Amino acid sequence: MKIKKLAVLLAAFSMAVSITACGPQKASEQVQTPADSGTAKTTETTAATTEVKPEDGAKLVIWESKDERSFTDEIAKQFTAKYNVPVKVEEVAPTDQVTKLTQDGPSGLAADVVIFPHDNLGRAASANLVLPNDLFAEETAKNNTESSIKGVTYNDVLYGYPRAAETYALYYNKSLVKDAPKTFDDVLAFGKTFTDKAKKKYGIMWETGNMYFNYPFIATTGGYIFGKDGTDKDDIGINSPGAIEGLKVYQSLKAILPVKSGDITPDIKRSLFNSGDVAMDINGPWELAGYKTALGDKLGVAPIPSIGGKPAVSFAGIKAWYVNAYTKYPNASKLFAEFASSKDAQLLLNEKVGSIPTNNEALESDQIKNDPFISAFAEQTKSSQPMPSIPEMGNIWSPVNAALPEIWDNGKDPKATLDKAAQQIKDLNNGAKK
């Protein structure tokens, strides 16, 4: 993938690094934007990173989720031991961080390093809230999966430091399903022997009204959200011929899951799967700990069954560190983001919370390959696609989440229903602020 390169001379770049390392800058001097702080050339980056040192007196604040706080506390201790930079961790939900950064960044109240889902990057980068990943661009791109790098890049500028991928896979109860189904034809065949609506027993269950979990039925056979790798808001592909082909498979599965989409909630599905009344569930790694406790050795995880003879394409979310554009300590912040997203850091994160690494070497490690659950999610990530990160992605959810129940619950024609949703999205896009 292409990363924007600035025509910056090595001497000038090295001088800027040296000046920055001498001490904290004033807020007016430290704020950078994509227009004046892109990624350096590959040869320059390698030279520059060897000279990066924390600013004198640097001290950092990091925003982290409550669920993954144990990892960040540990990695912060390691960073402080290596660089002698104190680190304070504050709990802020990743989905709230861009909004909070918008409010607190200019006033100097925000964290130096933040973490948020990559589909929020367009909003953050467009508002000049985060600095590009310039000093470590080459090694970040080299060390991590292509899809993760694509996810943390906006307008050809690399911003993020990927640390984990998140997608969904097929959970199954081994006492009910001997072997994980390879295709949705296999799922349909099994479901016809297992599903009993009167007894509330179902061969498979997933959130049929949520586009996030139903993206495989749109994308696997050729559909898409936005064209040009998710960057062209005017090219909407949810109603393309490929998408309609996959949605016919989706619609056929109502025969073995005769339940309205509104009646399938995470709590209901979890309870039925744990009790053995649902044999298979399409879900994410956040359910793994609970399912392991409930099913023990009976739990299996596998990639999502193929659709139309092709590996299922799931949505991927990339969790990554980003450096606040208003930080007083850009060098220290970039060093932390790099340090906390390394191979060793990603393996520590996996050990602490069961995350899926994006680092190529971590994915090939025995720790990941020998874990039957995480390795299945890692396998699914190979055919996953990062959610588009442009701001218009926010206009997709409501129209599609309204269209899917029409197709599932009421048997409406997928083409006509998605044509209507696509028009709604276009209208929203045309009214969106640039």
Description:
GO terms for molecular function: carbohydrate transmembrane transporter activity; maltose binding. Keywords: Cell membrane, Lipoprotein, Membrane, Signal, Sugar transport, Transport. One of its GO terms (biological process) is maltose transport. The chain has 434 residues and is an alpha+beta fold. It has 2 domains: 10-166 and 317-382, Periplasmic binding protein-like II (D-Maltodextrin-Binding Protein, domain 2, 3-Layer(aba) Sandwich); 169-313 and 396-431, 3-Layer(aba) Sandwich (D-Maltodextrin-Binding Protein, domain 2). 44% of the residues lie in helices and 13% in strands. It contains 21 helices and 13 strands. It has helices spanning 10-22, 27-30, 42-49, 69-83, 97-104, 121-126, 137-143, 146-151, 184-194, 211-219, 227-230, 241-252, 266-275, 288-295, 330-339, 343-353, 360-363, 366-369, 372-381, 397-410, 414-431; strands at 60-64, 87-91, 113-117, 130-131, 153-154, 157-158, 161-166, 169-173, 232-236, 280-283, 299-302, 315-324, 385-386. The strands form 4 sheets. Strands 3, 4, 7, 12 and 13 form a 5-stranded mixed beta sheet that branches. Strands 10-8-11 form a 3-stranded antiparallel beta sheet. The chain has a two-stranded parallel ribbon with strand order 1-2. Helix 20 runs antiparallel to helix 21 (414-431). It starts with 9 loop residues before the first helix and ends with a helix. Residues 1-49 have low confidence and may be disordered.
